[in-house]
Backbone:
């Protein structure tokens, strides 16, 4: 299929990830960690057990009302993501309820390797809004610059 990067959601067994990486050593694997679906201790254990088999992690938010793990438009407790950034030997990407209005604060508080946005840049029609996307990128870039200085 020509895929070079995959983002895996749901439960993943370290043995399955090891098999995947052995079969496709050039494949970049990003594994989701969902705050609220698992508590901080479970997420920390997942980082420890899965790090040898993935290239990065992405945090996201669980919505107990819908059962959705990601694409909820909700933020999670950023102290959890900050802890994961601190212990992970792999880059951690922050997702979950990010918008142009909060992405700068999120980056400054969490210190992620990158950020991911979905619903936070959508217009009322559910389509991506160019102005919101541009504002998000502008705010994220400013925050990463600020962290580097």
Residues:
């Amino acid at each position: 299929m020509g895929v070079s990067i995959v983002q895996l959601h749901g439960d993943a067994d370290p043995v399955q990830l090891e098999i995947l990486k052995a079969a496709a050593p050039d494949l970049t694997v990003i594994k989701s960690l969902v705050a609220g679906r698992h508590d901080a201790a479970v997420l920390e254990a997942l980082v420890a057990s899965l790090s040898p088999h993935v290239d990065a992690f992405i945090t996201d938010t669980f919505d107990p009302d819908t059962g959705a793990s990601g694409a909820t438009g909700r933020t999670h407790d950023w102290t959890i993501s900050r802890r994961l950034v601190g212990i992970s030997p792999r880059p951690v990407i922050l997702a979950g309820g990010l918008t142009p209005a909060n992405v700068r604060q999120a980056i400054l508080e969490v210190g992620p390797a990158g950020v991911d946005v979905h619903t936070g840049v959508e217009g009322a029609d559910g389509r991506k809004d160019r102005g919101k996307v541009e504002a998000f990128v502008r705010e994220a870039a400013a925050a990463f610059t600020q962290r580097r200085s």
Notes: Residues 5-148 form a domain with the TIM Barrel fold (CATH 3.20.20.70). Residues 130-148 form the longest helix (19 residues). The mean pLDDT is 92.
